[in-house]
Specification:
The structure is a homodimer of 189-residue chains. Chain A is built from 9 helices and no strands. Chain A is an all-alpha fold. Chains A, B: This is TetR/AcrR family transcriptional regulator.
Chain lengths: 189, 189
């Protein structure tokens, strides 16, 4: 069992996901989530600022982890390879696939959660771009590499969710190859 | 003077932008915006659902325009070239550069506007992906091409805002070449 599953935060996340799935996001209260997780409302707010946050726990840790991984990349590594190497070490992948699948479906079905997800992704992009700037890349390259790196990460996550046998690192490489094919198509020979 | 400048909507947009810039987004009311534009609050709500919407007017038209441009692309055009060709026809570029620069600064400085912008960009991405699906591309290619196409568009807009002499279509091509360089770097030879 993965590290995150046994703790209070993980229990709240799973309880929230179940309730959002069963009765919808709007009709679910923080009190219900806490009750389902056998915890108090007060413990809920120890972990999450509000109901919307409950599916985005761990985002800051992931961001910190990725920034540290970027900082640790050998000098001279290209901007996109730096990001891909960092993604390959992301602890997010240790979460059970079923959790990620259900989470993804619940977010897609609820506009307030989709908005929050967009904000979280934008925040992560900013952190990655800043980490690349710190490595000496110029602003435009850092931002462009981040945008395309995030596109590859999204594609990879999608493929890993769809295929139980998929290997995250291999899918990252495959995604980078697909990116190159799409990009090459955009420039006349 | 560009088409959009003379109308009520354009006046409301410019008034809002001035006020957000002068006194901040939070302290500006719809009544103040309407007054500055010499219009009533009622006319404001004829054009915009709320205060946040005022800087995103024209987004739906742009979306429709781009989808139509994608549909009109000759058969056999690649996914990314289809998007780039559509972007090259975007009427957005006819807005005065100073308006776009000020708008961009005001959005960057105000979290509620940044959130709304993320939602608008996500909505545009969905429309573009759907238009590419409609052209026969598979879901993953359509989405990947949209993600990278939007990254090139963002870079292009930024460069055009920074350089008065920049040509939008030329900068799109340059952005596509930069994208290819970043993408090629991500795949081992």
């Amino acid at each position: 069992m993965a590290r995150w599953e046994g703790n209070a935060r993980g229990r709240l996340e799973r309880a929230a996901l179940e309730l959002f799935d069963e009765q919808g996001y709007d009709r679910t209260t923080v009190a219900q989530i806490a009750k389902r997780a056998n915890l108090t409302e007060r413990s809920f707010y120890r972990w999450f600022a509000d109901k919307r946050e409950v599916l985005f726990g761990g985002g800051e840790e992931l961001e910190e982890h990725l920034v540290a991984a970027i900082d640790a990349t050998p000098a001279g590594t290209g901007a996109l390879p730096t990001l891909l190497a960092a993604f390959a070490t992301a602890p997010e992948v240790f979460r059970p696939r079923e959790f990620l699948q259900k989470r993804s479906a619940v977010i897609a079905a609820n506009p307030p959660l989709r908005e929050r997800e967009l904000i979280k992704l934008a925040s992560m992009s900013e952190a990655l771009t800043a980490a690349l700037l710190n490595r000496g890349y110029d602003q435009q390259t850092a931002r462009l590499a981040t945008d395309v790196g995030m596109a590859v990460l999204r594609l990879t996550t999608e493929r890993c969710m769809a295929d139980e046998q998929a290997d995250f690192a291999q899918e990252l490489s495959a995604g980078a190859a697909d990116l190159l094919a799409v990009a090459a198509d955009g420039v006349p020979d």
